[in-house]
Amino acid sequence: MSRPKYVTKIDQVTQLNEDEKKRIRKVTEEFAFRANDYYLSLIDWNDPKDPIRRLVVPVEAELEVWGELDASREAEYTKVPGLEHKYNATGLLLVNDVCGAYCRFCFRKRIFMVENDEVVKDVIAGLEYIRDHDEITNVLLTGGDPLVMSTGKLERIVSRLRDIDHVQIIRIGTKLPAFNPYRIIDDPSLLEMIRKYSTTYKRMYFVVHFNHPRELTDVAVEGLALLRDAGAILVNQTPLIAGVIDDAFVLSELFNRLSYIGVPPYYVFQCRPTLGNKTYSIPLERAYEIFEQGRMNSSGLARRARFVMSHATGKVEVVGLTGEHIHFKYLRAHYDEDNSRFLVFKRDPSAYWFDDYQEAVDANGVENPFLAARTELDSGDTP
Questions:
Q1: Which helix (H) or strand (E) holds 251?
Q2: In order along the chain (383 residues), what is the average pLDDT of each group of 10 residues?
Q3: What's the predicted TM-score (pTM) here?
Q4: Torsion over CA of 5, 10, 13 and 18, rounded to 10 degrees?
Q5: Is 116 helix (H, G, I), strand (E, B) or coil?
Q6: Distance (Å) of CA 201 to CA 89, 197, 212, 231, 281
Q7: d(CA 376, CA 313)
């Protein structure tokens, strides 16, 4: 197979019967659907609980009212259209509003909805912002998926970033190696671009998204090898997803297989409380247990991932559980004083997110007023 055919209407999925299509159609009126015949071919259609199916085929439970569209409040960190600057050294450019397929659990599904204006076709203003802020040493290109763009369009952005001396790292967040590895295999110009701009002292990183071991097909592994051989540094990240990767043995298989092919696990995320995502979310403490059990069955090179939440206030790592408490640490924070802050909360097995913890204590068991002070960002107080 080459150049997969894309489908954007649920009626085009011939493997679904008419009753299934009828029930799903109302979900697609709320949240966009997109897939392709390569990825749909990975599904065992005789198994209604098939994990690949669950990744891209809508379910009625998405209509349950829960969460919000911008769960991490990205809008509050948008400095110019298409450019977010939440952490001091990192700039984020939303360069595209299309993906190879739409993950049902996507935390940024709002940009695929009608009248979204977060993604801009012309990123000149974002590039100028980066040029004017020499604290930004690495830039993440995301969206949407940057690899859905033509290589020519993508290279115009990459080349302009390489003209900015203080930008050391260019990161591309992409699930195309899983959704459509032929995008890499059939386009030698993409590999030439990587060879040109991923230099000895200024590397390009590809943060890929493999959510289940069955996505690591032979052609997907071939695509990853081509990216690596062209000079890209590869890492993988995934959320834990109910019905997809909510089993420690499946997670350890993913970790191990990634390590075998030279794609180290990077972050494992707690599924964000985004509108429509309740059916894909796992209670936080259970998710942490799955994460730790998955790591225990992996070699040292496969267990480098950290389990984190991309909270509005920063990237919060879950670092441990005791009988009564859950322990967190800020890996990255919006507020400088929160960087590396260690927090202890009373356990709550029903919690899905950082904000669900109401009682906090510090390491000495003393009540900690931090939660109330930080779960609401101060309006107009962005540094």
A1: helix 248-260
A2: 84 94 94 96 96 97 94 93 94 94 94 73 92 98 95 97 98 98 97 98 98 98 98 98 97 96 96 96 98 91 92 95 95 90 93 83 50 44 35
A3: 0.92
A4: -160
A5: coil
A6: 17, 10, 33, 12, 40
A7: 8
